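Structure ticket #2291
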Amino acid sequence: MIANARMYSVTALAEQAWRALLAHVSERAGVALPYVEHAAPAPVSALWARPDCGCVFMCGYPYARAAVAPQLLAAPVPALARYEGRPVYFSEFIVRADAPVQTLAQTFGRRLACMLPESNSGYNAPRHHLMRQAPSGTRALYRPTARPTPTPREVIDAVIGGHAEVGVVDSYVLDLLRRFEPALVARLKTLDVTPAAPTPPLVASAQADPHECERVRAALLTLHEGTTGTALLAMLGLARFAAVQPADYADLPALAREADQAGFALTDAGVRNRGLE
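Resolution: structure written out below.
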């Protein structure tokens, strides 16, 4: 079985930290989990489809929609106080630090850098949040970027580079960048955040040996109890890993369906593509 932390390997140093943490989990569990590369632009959905996933981060929205659900292992709990000791994150609406706007409403009608519809943090969570703010009958509040931005780093680069006025990024991704690339995040400011959503879990494929999965799960859930594990968690701004259940992610498809049924899109390109205008 393989390990991979692409979703949160936001810098080379962050990836090194994840490799070290997952190697320690493998050793404690007594389960071989070789780390495999699956960097962008390779689609992350192809990683999730591999039958040999043993400890791989997966976005909660595609997890909840999977025809055959992977086996849940655990989800990370960020250490910062704003997470209240829960395995959750927020989507942050970011702009350049020197942007004159002070509220999210002041950016409506401009270009929004977002991720693909399979992403909860970079698409569905912000779409549902904006739908709640939009005047009745509004189909979209933003225009699209000229080119897709399928990764958090591409969203950030689009905002800093002036190709979008606003972007949406997973708060824990930004926490990691504040830790490993503070100069980059210093060029951004956050205008708004979505309600909390369940953190992407570490999963194993449905075909993986359930006994080995249980050992990996136990190693993750007790990682914070050892000196080495505590240090590895601290490198990544984490307090611990928490147990999660399928029910924790069950509401995510419902939020997406609500926005679909309302005909609300994240940008007006989504409206046109669905033939709603």
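Closing remark: The CA atoms of residues 2 and 33 lie 5 Å apart.
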